[in-house]
Amino acid sequence: MDSLQDNAARVEALTVLSRFRREFYECLTLRADALFELTDAVLCAGGPVVSLPELSLAGVHRRGHGAMYDALAQGHINVSRLRMALAGLRLPRGTDGQLSIALDVTAWPRPDAECSPQRLHCHRPCRCDGVRQTIPGWPYQVAAALGGGRSSWTGPLDAVRLGPEDDPTEVTAAQIRDLVARLERAGQWRPGDLPVLFVLDSGYDIVRLTWLLREEPVRLLGRIRADRVMRAPAGKRRGTHPGRPPRHGAEFRLAQAATYPAPVQESAGVHDRFGQVLARCWGRLHPKLDRRGSWADHEGELPIVEGTLVHLSVEHLPGNRDPKPLWLWHSDPDATAHDVDRLWRIFLRRFDIEHTFRFFKQTLGLTRPRLRTPEQADRWVWLILAAYAQLRLARPLAEDLRRPWEKPLTPDQLTPGRVRRGYPRIRRTMGTPARAPKATHPGPGRPKGRTSTPAPRHPVGKKQRKTDMPRRGGAEQQP
């Protein structure tokens, strides 16, 4: 009976994977065959992707390297349809069924690409003593669904490139609205379900995002600086003289424990990596906003944006590093409506997206190609997201093809790298929707002399409008 159930599960998984591959092929509206075979070459390469020409030598890539470069330069992807296809896949969820989605920015470094437009100074994590922490490149903001336990798997759903003229907070709010609308159309979220939780790291203006998304069925959980000052709800006006009632209450200075009132909730326990853990939360707190930065153009009176503060203190960090203060902001101001212990554990799951970024770059070659235009880079990024989605769907079908020095893993413990090793076998059972290339003849060769003018140079964007670009969360590994 177990073997019959296993066979039925494998057939179902193979059907879902084949259906997604067909849908992905339909999303490629121009140079579809070349783009599809390029994605298969990324999945079936014998090792990490190091360059585009080497991908053209893979057996699944039946075209020359010229067709590959032409597909990236002149091809077209129906991104809206591909986004819906990704939103319709089975997504990881927590034990309570709530969708938790991490948002973070990863940079595509292009320091020497003076002819590439729309570059920005992206944050570059560095553990050396140097003072330079940025590098010219293209920043991409990725949204990925998180699971309920410790895992190296996520469910990437969207990617947006930030431009020099973009306001990162406005772009993030628009990305969240569009993503929630797609999840509702795909049946992943229905009215009456728990709000979709978006988990952010430091660098995002989470208070501004809370205000912009106040009408959406979402909740925000993110890290804030440990030197901020919050205010309690305003009380009654002191004295007997009439006047305007106060808007802000007592100060809550995160850096001064003497200003802390009694917490609404408190949870203590022992963690296998951090030792003794103490979590406390306070509700109905808000910052005193100033008409500057992202609030400079706000019409009317500045609002009161309330939320819940969560403070986490641990005994130690991995590697015997000294723990730093960790403060989280939750957009739900009612501190009694949720479990404080669950909030900080959900925030820990945000670091799973760092494993996805590392796999994108080190194995799938996200930042390996030296492409000229950002439009070509966008096509390559969406090919990588589609390739990772196929690996996630192929997880129940993969075998543990481990190296002699690697530990054996059960099917539910296979990492993306292990699944990629067995993907060529899985692909052979499905075939490919791409058509075979036409017969070609040798061309006339390279013409003599120079046939093009020098490419124009583009400066690197100095700053973005209103607010700074969000930093990657991988620079600091907080609990």
Task: Write a brief structural summary.
The chain is an alpha+beta fold and 479 residues long. It has helices spanning 2-27, 32-44, 52-55, 65-74, 79-87, 168-185, 206-212, 340-349, 352-362, 374-393, 416-421, 423-428; strands spanning 28-30, 76-77, 100-109, 120-123, 134-146, 155-161, 196-200, 218-224, 229-231, 251-253, 265-271, 275-287, 307-314, 326-330. Strands 3, 4, 5, 6, 7, 8, 9, 10, 11, 12, 13 and 14 form a 12-stranded mixed beta sheet that branches. A two-stranded antiparallel ribbon has the order 1-2.
Query: What would the average pLDDT be, to the nearest integer?
Result: 88
Terminal CA distance: 44 Å
SSE order, as H and E? HEHHHEHEEEEHEHEEEEEEEHHHHH
Instruction: Report the total helices.
Output: 12
What are the segments in which pLDDT stays under 50 over at least 5 consecutive residues? 465-479
Beta-strand proportion: 15-25%
Considering DSSP H and I runs of 4 or more, what fraction of the residues is helical?
A: 25-40%
Q: Characterize the main sheet.
A: 12 strands, mixed
- How many strand units? 14
Walkthrough of the structure:
- With 479 residues, the protein is of the alpha+beta class.
- The strands form 2 sheets. Strands 3, 4, 5, 6, 7, 8, 9, 10, 11, 12, 13 and 14 form a 12-stranded mixed β-sheet that branches. It has a two-stranded antiparallel ribbon with strand order 1-2.
- Strand 7, helix 7 and strand 8 form a beta-alpha-beta unit.
- The radius of gyration is 25 Å and the shape is globular.
- The two termini are 44 Å apart.
- 38% of the residues are buried.
- The C terminus is likely disordered.
